[in-house]
Specification:
By secondary structure, the chain is α/β, with parallel strands linked by helices. It folds into 2 domains: 166 residues, 3-Layer(aba) Sandwich (Rossmann fold); 199 residues, Dehydroquinate synthase-like - alpha domain (Dehydroquinate synthase-like, alpha domain, Up-down Bundle), CATH 1.20.1090.10. It is 45% helix and 11% strand. The chain contains 14 helices and 8 strands. The protein has a 6-stranded parallel β-sheet with strand order 1-8-5-4-2-3, with helices on both faces. The protein has a two-stranded antiparallel sheet with strand order 6-7. Helix 9 crosses helix 13.
Amino acid sequence: MQNFVYKNATEILFGAGQTANIAERIPADATVLMLYGGGSIKHNGAYDQALAALANHNVIEFGGVEANPTYETLMQALDVVRDEAVDFILAVGGGSVGDGAKFIAAAAQFNGEPWDILEQGAAVLSALPVGVVLTLPATGTESNGNSVITRVGTQQKLGFGSPHVRPQFAVLDPSFTLTLPVRQVGNGVVDAFVHVIEQYLTYPTNAPLQDRFAESILSTLIEEGPKALATPDDYAVRANIMWCACMALNGLIGQGVPQDWSTHMIGHEVTAVHGLDHAQTLAVVLPALLRVKIDQKRAKLEQLGQRVFGMPAPDAAATIDAIQAFFERMGVPTRLAGYDLDRSAVKPVIDSLEKNGMLALGEHGDITPAVATQILELSS
């Protein structure tokens, strides 16, 4: 196992009705920006519960954050933060709203052009405090310091990370997820699954506890994900999925082990260029990437197949097939053709990878644009 330093300062408030407890975690004299997306929070109860909890605070609302939060929209929110002297940002919604809140929080105290945080990797030295009321389990943004933002004008989807934007608290109330559309349920499960894979499916490093942490999350998602589609009113199922998604990317399972993240980097470019949902791009890229890199990842693929998919004998290829079948079972197509894209869609993605300097991806740094081309063509 590799050396590591791990600290997660996010307080998790898990369960129904926990939104009522956020007021005591926000300074009484704070001006709060309540950030949300397209308005679904006004139908699932999150909006009303958040406003009720903050009845004695000065609350300013900003809605309209996109499913892939855009720099353009977030800069409008930043203007509100500055004009209204906002002290605290509360994200009420899914991972995109959480990511957007983090970027705004960093940009509000950044001395320079905010886009430099994303494109130049400029250091974030401070940020406004952030809290999250989560309504869509998927990204894990509620308990990590990561954020990914899209700039429409340049067709770029870039991320940054800083401990300064890690949420101070996160409410995980599974009841808010009971009204999610089927597409978002499937996407969320696939997103969480691939987050685990990116930290697990590399090469052995004698980290058995981390492996089994990861495998337990994957096994639970495989068991509970289809149940969420079959019995959408089951609170217990949604609770298990919500906790899995949080644990998948709160930093724990990635400590002391090599990580990949090439599926995400390629997927980000597919979203930026062609507009697919984030999880859809992961479902397209991952199986093809694993087939191209099967020899390097064989040991962990075989371990995954036997421990998680119950295969009687080591079989890396069959494990990849099982991953792809699970994504399809969750209603997320795994080929570009499933989104009305063909091989002509590949080159613009590769051009975007090169433009953004994504030239040496993966745990070995050997996924070049040429290899990424092979992966995307295989997924067409």
